[in-house]
Every structure is written in C-alpha cells, then in structure tokens.
Amino acid sequence: MTEIRDLTVGVLGGTGAQGKGLAVRWAHAGVKVIIGSRSAERAELAAKEIVEVAGGTVSGADNADTAANSDIVLVAVPWEGHGDLLASLRDQLAGKIVIDCVNPLGFDKQGPFALPVTEGSAAQQAELLLPESKVTAAFHHVSAVLLADLANVSEVDMDVLVLGDDREATDTVRELAELVPGFRGVYGGRLRNAHQVEAFTANLIAVNRRYKTHAGLKITGV
C-alpha cells in the first residue's frame, strides 16, 4: 500500500477556516498539500501563511489545477457553490478519493438548522456529480479554531466519522485523519447515511455557542 505521506492532498476551499485548519495539521505531519481557491493568487497567499505556521510543503493553485495535481481532494467549500464546482471538476477528480466535508446548513434567529438536499446530502450530491471518483464523507465535526492553533493545541481530541461505499477509500481517509494528533478515524457507515452526520453539525454549533467551547465527537466502545 502507498504510504499516506507519499500522497498529495488538495484542499478545495483551502482559504476558508475548516480547509485551512486541516491543511495546517497535514502540512505539519509531512503531507504535501495544495491549497485550492477560485483565485490562484489567494490560494498562494494562504499556502505561504500555512508554511509560516506549520512548515512542510504547501502550494497554492486554482481549483482546477488543485484537483488535477492531487491524489486525495478535500471539498471544504460553501454549500451554495458545492454542486457547480464539483460538476466543473468531474474530469480532474476522476479516479481519485474525494472527501466531502460540506455541511448544508442555514441560520436564522433561532440558530443553525439543516437544509434539505435533493440528493439526500452534500456527499450524495458529490457522488452523483463525480461518478468516476471514490467519494467519501468526513471531517464535518472538527474544530477549525483548534486545528489552526498549532502553537497552543498539540492534540485535537476527537473522533472523525468517515463514511463511504469503497472500503479502501474509507480506510485511507481514516489513516489521513489519524495524522492529526488526537484524531481517531472511525468508519461511520455508507454514504447514504451522510445526511444525519452533516445535519448533526447544527447541534454541535448550538453546543459550542451555549457552552463557549469547541466540542467534537467521541465514539465509545470502539
């Protein structure tokens, strides 16, 4: 099997908080990372900032080049642009592991809530748009704040649920998760079960707001 650190991880939406936080940890662990954005210039700037914090090999590119030049691609873009972006990158993502961590959420005066998705979930939408890719779902509940704070947070103590229909792909994503000190990758079921995982993010946000913390998940008995 290929050593996980020999693979290049692309992060679509790598200038956003969640994508950038994960990129910091992976770069620090010795993974080659490409930050993707609609603007290559903005991506390159984010890559330089990550190297200053975490070291490692990090570059920036537009989304198409990021997808084309990566072995594994994390999708961490806003829900509003999720479908259009993935449809445009179908060829570049063919044959690759795609990790969807997008949470379709809305916000009103009562707080966060799950949005209805025609395909069932963001991950299932990705699966339909990328029939030649190995689509997985993971990293929905990780704290961007804790991930980015490499200087003060040495370990991020939480489990990462990994869903998907390809066993080898989910095992690879679990291994990638465990490069982050404190993370444990746990298989969470097939991709058809991604809806409730995405939706549960609304509950975690509510917990964090009430208790002023950065809560995550821990699975007992495993």
UniProtKB/TrEMBL annotation:
<dbReference type="InterPro" id="IPR010185">
    <property type="entry name" value="NpdG"/>
</dbReference>
<protein>
    <submittedName>
        <fullName>NADPH-dependent F420 reductase</fullName>
    </submittedName>
</protein>
<keyword id="KW-0560">Oxidoreductase</keyword>
<dbReference type="InterPro" id="IPR028939">
    <property type="entry name" value="P5C_Rdtase_cat_N"/>
</dbReference>
<feature type="domain" description="Pyrroline-5-carboxylate reductase catalytic N-terminal">
    <location>
        <begin position="8"/>
        <end position="104"/>
    </location>
</feature>
<dbReference type="InterPro" id="IPR036291">
    <property type="entry name" value="NAD(P)-bd_dom_sf"/>
</dbReference>
<dbReference type="Pfam" id="PF03807">
    <property type="entry name" value="F420_oxidored"/>
</dbReference>
<dbReference type="InterPro" id="IPR051267">
    <property type="entry name" value="STEAP_metalloreductase"/>
</dbReference>
